[in-house]
């Protein structure tokens, strides 16, 4: 389905995400925040202008709670088990407003405190080394899907370690998360089934952790899930007693997503960008730039979340500089892929990958304001560690296909590649002769 706009008609997202960069360009050509139709025929505004985005993200009258501030949802006009599914029905810090948001954010913020994240560095290095050891067994000249065997595994292993997810639940969680939240072209029945499976897994995880706590097999706050459950069940603290069981499950889900999806796409895109822009890779190897520069420019150039759902003005809002009006209760999507390539901020080369760009840090890949992504520090650390180790271990790493054959994820929300085929090591002299023979 092609994104199109006829006179007076809104754009329509392609649920399969076949050209999200092109969509973002067409949105921008239509204005700072054009009308768009989401799957399920839900009308919204998609913001692609950096100035407008920052203003809205920091505005005190912008809510993420559909239960209070989306009239169509509150009145039952939006089927609760269709299309948008978990993005609106889950109750956590990311879908709360005002005092409720502050209460829930205080509860989950310690999980991503600098001391906690810094303490994970050795674990990240260990997991990275183990995955690269496995890749090193690949025969010279053999094609490897790096997403399947490295970039898609490392963040998942870190996230499940952080939250204490048992090994046997790790893969089911990853599958259900992808289907329920990000695979926007998935048939309605499959998406609903994935959402139900996600609910079951969250309930099972909490049950397992509560049993471990009861048997005193877990120390205080040994993993984030344990810490959240102990906080939820601490009847001595009236503030924490306000945390419902549904909010407990919702916040565990939010933390899994914050620690996983963004990081997978970030690392995958960074590798793909470097292998298709060898001059940029040479800059890093020659000391003209560093891995932090690569990470920040990748976040800007290929926002891991292309379009973030949903926000709701709690009153009519007017942005004076752009002349844009945002009507009370009409959903707003943050089009981060378009926002981060805003030419007003990044100039005429905004659509190009340049790790020396002076404005590479000026992006909103992790949002801003009260709902900024709590996993941003962890994502940056993982990406820096993974990229450094990968290119050190495999200095001759090359892409095994043409850039146009890197197929995007089937999603208008998540911006990534389905696969990343590479050749880790070139054929040696003897192997090359044998291959030709």
From TrEMBL:
PROSITE patterns: CYTOCHROME_P450 (PS00086). Keywords: Heme, Iron, Metal-binding, Monooxygenase, Oxidoreductase. It comes from the Bacteria. PANTHER family: CYTOCHROME P450 YJIB-RELATED, P450, PUTATIVE (EUROFUNG)-RELATED. Belongs to the cytochrome P450 family. This is Cytochrome P450. It comes from Streptomyces endocoffeicus. The lineage of its organism: Bacteria, Bacillati, Actinomycetota, Actinomycetes, Kitasatosporales.
């Amino acid at each position: 389905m092609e994104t199109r706009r006829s006179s007076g008609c809104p754009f329509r997202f392609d649920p399969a995400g076949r050209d999200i960069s092109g969509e973002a360009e067409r949105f921008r050509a239509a204005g700072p925040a054009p009308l768009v139709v989401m799957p399920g025929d839900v009308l919204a505004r998609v913001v692609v202008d950096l100035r407008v985005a920052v203003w809205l993200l920091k505005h005190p009258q912008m809510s993420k709670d559909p239960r209070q501030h989306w009239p169509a949802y509150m009145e039952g006009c939006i089927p609760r088990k269709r299309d948008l599914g978990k993005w609106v029905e889950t109750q956590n810090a990311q879908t709360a407003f005002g005092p409720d948001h502050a209460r829930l954010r205080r509860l989950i913020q310690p999980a991503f405190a600098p001391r906690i994240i810094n303490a994970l560095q050795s674990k990240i290095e260990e997991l990275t080394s183990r995955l690269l050891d496995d890749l090193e067994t690949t025969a010279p000249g053999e094609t490897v899907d790096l997403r399947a065997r490295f970039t898609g595994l490392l963040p998942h292993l870190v996230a499940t370690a952080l939250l204490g997810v048992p090994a046997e639940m790790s893969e089911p969680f990853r599958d259900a998360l992808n289907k329920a939240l990000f695979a926007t072209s998935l048939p309605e029945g499959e998406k609903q089934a994935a959402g139900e499976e996600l609910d079951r897994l969250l309930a099972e995880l909490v049950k397992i952790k509560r049993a471990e706590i009861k048997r005193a097999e877990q120390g205080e706050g040994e993993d984030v899930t344990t810490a959240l459950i102990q906080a939820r069940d601490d009847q001595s603290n009236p503030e924490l007693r306000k945390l419902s069981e549904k909010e407990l499950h919702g916040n565990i889900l939010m933390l899994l997503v914050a620690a996983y999806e963004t990081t997978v796409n970030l690392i995958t895109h960074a590798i793909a960008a470097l292998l298709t822009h060898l001059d940029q890779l040479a800059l890093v190897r020659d000391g003209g730039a560093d891995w932090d520069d690569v990470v920040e420019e990748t976040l800007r150039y290929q926002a891991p979340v292309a379009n973030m759902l949903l926000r709701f003005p709690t009153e009519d809002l007017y942005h004076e500089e752009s002349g844009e009006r945002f009507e009370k209760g009409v959903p707003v999507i943050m089009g981060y892929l378009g926002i981060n390539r805003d030419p007003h901020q990044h100039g005429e080369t905004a659509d190009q990958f340049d790790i020396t760009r002076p404005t590479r840090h000026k992006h909103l890949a992790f949002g801003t304001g009260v709902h900024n992504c709590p996993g941003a520090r962890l994502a940056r650390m993982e990406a820096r560690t993974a990229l450094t180790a990968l290119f050190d271990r495999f200095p001759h790493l090359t892409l095994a296909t043409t850039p146009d054959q890197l197929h995007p994820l089937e999603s208008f929300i998540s911006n990534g590649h389905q696969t990343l085929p590479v050749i880790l090591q070139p054929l040696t002299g003897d192997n090359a002769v044998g291959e030709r023979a």
